Amino acid sequence: MRIGITCYPTYGGSGVVATELGIELAALGHEVHFISYSQPFRLTGRSEGIFYHEVPVSSYPLFEFPPYDLALASRMAEVAEFCNLDLLHVHYAIPHAVSALLARQMLEARGRKLPFVTTLHGTDITLVGLDRGYLPITRFGIQESDGVTSISSYLRERTLVDFNVTRPIEVIPNFVNCDVYQPMPEEERSQARLRFAAPDELVMMHLSNFRPVKRVTDVVKVFAQIARAVPARLVLIGDGPDRSAAEWLAHDLGLNTRVQFIGKQDQVHKLLPLADLMLMPSEQESFGLAALEAMACSVPAVATNVGGVPELIDHGVTGLLYEVGEVDEMAAGALELLRDRARFEEMRLAARRIAKKKFCANDIVKKYVEFYESILANN
Ligand code: GMT
Q1: What is the C-alpha to C-alpha distance for residues 249 and 261, in angstroms, rounded to an integer?
Q2: What are the structural domain ranges in the chain?
Q3: Residues 6+ apart with CB under 8 A from 120
Q4: Residue 315 pLDDT exceeds 70
Q5: Which atom of ligand 1 lies nearest, measured to the CA of 14?
Q6: 14 C-alpha to center of ligand 1: Å?
Q7: For the domain bounded by 2-175+361-377, which CATH number is listed?
Q8: How far is CA 188 from the centre of its chain?
């Protein structure tokens, strides 16, 4: 198949999933064309079968807001025509589903078909999409898609209820390449951990885009309690609006030397295995890809019982779940787990086992391919 993929290219779960999907599809022999305003950040090399088409967005004095969605629609139609795409797969409904709809109509007028699949990721439904200014057009884009998938059952329900969408939504969960995201051999791990911690110190990790929904200051608060009880370090990967609030909090709590903000990183699969626990105290999380990536590396997450997270983490078995804001409970639960080496080891193994069993790229990517085939068969 020749598949066009559109996503947000910057740091964020939906762009990661879209990019990893494209890479996996190309490895299966499909031709993948990324169409976006800049190259997706995880698309570092360019393996065979992967192409990137930039969307030029011209600005004129008349435009206070350059119309990216129109430029994108135009580029989608061009790429589909020149590269003979079979279908488009857009990740994150706003504005991508609407741009794809326009591209499909542009090609229809020329007697050519371009079905498109929309994958819903989270805030496109739970936050941005609920904004009255965007809701009707987002709903229209979803409703008019040739196929719709969501990354968790929770998100599917939210879309059906909050958007009153009547078309079927297939749940295809997020996935991880368990050969890339995997535990590190012990000697290599001990050596690599020295970058962040002394040999006797534990390493807590957080990975996100530091948006308010991630509650990064809770990460620091949980860590502060852990660090009071045991020798530990906190490594925060990523960047975003709440980074400075978290930095100030770490400073005010006297944790400067124990907390490291290492910013955006391309090779998170080399960092996650160095952690003992992942901290993900989010307010909302339709899936929690960062926790899955950590689990594949045998790193359980201390997370919140929100959205699609319970579909990923089984409390007490593959990680720990708490209500939003239960900072004391999260710290106490983490400490209790870390002190019980046998239970901790068991959870580490269970986390990787479940990542491999339920969320392995090989199995999930097959589901996408089957879904594409069913869309093409009906169009
Ligand atoms: O979490 C974010 O702020 C980014 C957002 C996105 O769309 O890039 O993430 C959403 O999609 C991820 C990949 O499917 C999910 O793992 C995240 O749970 C989801 N975020 C939220 O629902 C807040």
Answers
A1: 12
A2: 2-175+361-377, 186-359
A3: 92, 93, 142, 148, 149, 150, 151, 155, 156, 159, 169, 286
A4: yes
A5: 8
A6: 6
A7: 3.40.50.2000
A8: 27
**Domain boundaries 186-359, CATH class:** alpha beta
| Closest CA relative to residue 137, chosen from 94, 75, 91 | 94
Integer Cα distance of 296 and 364 in angstroms: 15
Exposed (0-12), middle (13-18) or buried (19+): which is 357, by Cβ within 10 Å? exposed
- Token pair for 140: 């229209």
Residue nearest to atom 7 of ligand 1 (CA): 14
> Cα of 202 to ligand 1 centre, how many Å?
27
96-108 and 135-143 helices, crossing angle to 10°: 50
Q: What are phi and psi of 261, to 5 degrees?
A: -95, 110
pLDDT of residue 46: 66
d(CA 122, CA 181): 23
Residue pair 75/53 in contact by the 8 Å Cβ criterion: yes
Task: Please indicate whether the domains covering 2-175+361-377 and 186-359 agree at the CATH topology level.
Answer: yes
Q: Which residues pair with 147 in a beta bridge?
A: 117
Ligand 1 pocket test, pick from 90, 121, 158, 283 with the greatest ligand atom count within 8 Å of Cβ, gives 121
Ligand 1, CB cutoff 6 Å, lining residues: 12-15, 17, 92, 121-123, 126, 151, 174, 209, 211, 213, 284-289, 307
Tell which one of 285, 293, 309 to mutate to probe ligand 1, the residue whose CB is within 8 A of the most ligand atoms: 285
The edge-to-edge listing of strands for the beta sheet with 259-263 is: 259-263, 232-237, 202-207, 277-280, 301-304, 319-322
Q: What does the block give as tokens for 272? A: 């996650």
Confidence of residue 78 (pLDDT cuts 50, 70, 90): very high
> Rounded CA gap, 62 and 150, in Å?
38
Tens of pLDDT, residue by residue over 167-225, are 999 999 999 999 999 999 999 999 999 999 999 999 999 999 999 999 999 999 999 99
Per-residue pLDDT of 35-57, as tens digits, reads 999 988 878 766 789 999 999 99
